[in-house]
Amino acid sequence: MILDTPAIASLYRSHGHVVLRRARTLLGSEADAREVLQEIFTALVRNPDAVRSAGSVVGWLYQATTHHCLNQLRKARTGARVLELHVRPGMAESGGPRGEAAAEVRRLLALLPEDVAAAVVYRHLDGMTHAEVADLLGCSRRQVGYLLERAQGLWDRAEQTA
Amino acid sequence: MNLAATPLSWNACLSALRLDRWMMGELGAADTETVGTHVSSCAACSAALAGIRGVREEVRALPLPAALGRPSPRRRVPGAAVAGVGLALAASLVLVLRVPHPVQRSKGSGVGLAMYVQHGDEVRRAAPGETVSPGDAVRFAVSTPVPAYVAVLSLDPAGKASVYFPQATRAAPVPAGSEVPLPLGTRLDATTGQERLLVLFCPSAVELEPIRQALARGQDGAPLPADCQGLRWSFVKR
After folding, report:
1. Strand-pair partners of B194
2. Which region, left, alpha or beta, applies to residue A96 given φ > 0 means left and ψ of -120 to 50 means alpha?
3. Do A58 and B15 touch (CB under 8 A)?
4. Which of B10, B99, B103 to mutate to test the interface with A (most CBs of A within 10 A)?
5. pTM as predicted
6. Does B99 touch chain A (CB under 8 A)?
7. ipTM of this predicted complex?
8. Rounded to an integer, what distance in angstroms lies between the CA atom of residue B204 and that of residue A129?
9. Mean pLDDT of residues grouped by 10 in chain A (162 residues)?
10. Pick from A3, A148, A152: CB nearest B98
11. What does the longest C-alpha to C-alpha distance in chain B come to?
């Protein structure tokens, strides 16, 4: 498979929505979601082997998007930008109790270890079965169950201390 | 807060991954049919899919990132008669053959189908179950690991069965290859609703009229001719 720049541009057109939709949900910011969309496909120009060796293009884009967005949430948490992220105009859930609860979910995701946070995202934000989550994480379904239990425990603890 | 019930939780019964993979033609034939049937009767999944399609249209309207350069002019073709569509779509195939794209595949057999739709000036690759419009021009490309005799039959929403390809009484030979464009396109008529396709890959030039008649009797699940493989695809005209 030749994956040169025109082919990646074609991939952007055909599959870009897989990234943008999930990045919007994960980040709650249109500007940041578009940035992730651009970053993922631009990175492919530098390293086309990343997707070439993947069994599923959609699955690979899910992994890449989750990784990018969780990184961004963690970076946001460590700096003053977290405040800007939570109140930035144009966020889908920028107001009301629902918006505050969505922002709280993102804040808590940033606190979780990456594999635990990814399991939460796949299971609850994408509605995947344990088998689908296991496939994307490259682990067993039992491990997925363990990660999700751990996530709920950490989540409960973080809420109590908040 | 229960992790399963946050404002960001997914609400459809099929996962986002499954819907995305279905839309992009990554599922096997049986899974594709299962998901398509479910989506057509499930309001939550249907709404989720509409959301996904909406974002896809948004991305198509966005400018390409600078690193990816300008969009290839081959993605757009001028309004053309069906004969012209063939050439235009073949041109777009040159571009898309390089990367994995939505293709309906029969699990384990290596045969596959891709469908291209021209709506106005825009040519796009259609996913199974996608909504198209009367007047759109469509063209198919097939993948087969060995030379095969191929036919594309259709059962329209009014129950009328016809042969899209070839314009002959028997299946036509197609060389082995990935996404070999079939030489004929067709323009969709004004009948609206779900249209089902049956694509045959056979070792010989099978007679198509008995199969067309079986389709017309609503027997699109009828046994295929001996040694033939069949792929099923559907789209919705609205």
Report:
1. B236
2. left
3. no
4. B99
5. 0.57
6. yes
7. 0.88
8. 43
9. 78 93 92 92 88 84 96 72 41 56 86 94 96 96 96 85 70
10. A3
11. 64
A136 close to B (CB below 8 A): yes
CA distance linking residue A159 with residue B95, whole number of Å: 51
User: Which tokens hold the place of A156?
Assistant: 């409960």
Contact B185, B82 (CB under 8 A): yes
- Nearest residue, CB atoms, A45 vs list B18, B56, B68: B68
Instruction: Tell me how far apart the alpha carbons of residues B181 and B196 are, in angstroms, rounded to a whole number.
Output: 20
pLDDT grade, residue B185 (50/70/90)?
low
Place of tokens 């961004």: A72
Residues 70-129 of A with CB under 8 A from B: 93, 98-99, 101-102, 104-106, 120, 122-129
Which positions in chain A touch B51 (Cβ < 8 Å)? 21
Task: Pull the structure tokens for residue B165.
Answer: 């390809």
Rounded Cα gap, residues B173 and B208, in angstroms: 14
ω into residue B157 within 30 of 0, thus cis?
Answer: no
Contact criterion met (CB < 8 Å) for A9 and B72 = yes
Lowest mean pLDDT: which of A47-56, A133-142, B128-137, B176-185?
A: B176-185
B18 and B35 in contact (C-beta within 8 Å)?
yes
**Buried-exposed string B141-159: b where 16+ CB fall within 10 A, e elsewhere:** bbbbeeebbbbbbbbbeee
Beta pairing partners, B150: B172, B201
Contact B118, B85 (CB under 8 A): yes
Indicate the DSSP class of residue B165: E
- In Å, how far is A161's CA from the nearest CA of chain B? 13
User: Which structure tokens are listed for A155?
Assistant: 């989540």
Residue B167 near chain A (CB below 8 Å): no
Tokens (6 digits) for A50? 């990343």
Between B168-172, B221-225, B228-232, the lowest mean confidence (pLDDT) is in B221-225
Q: How many CB pairs under 8 A join A and B?
A: 152
Scanning the structure block, which residue is given the tokens 């009797």?
B217
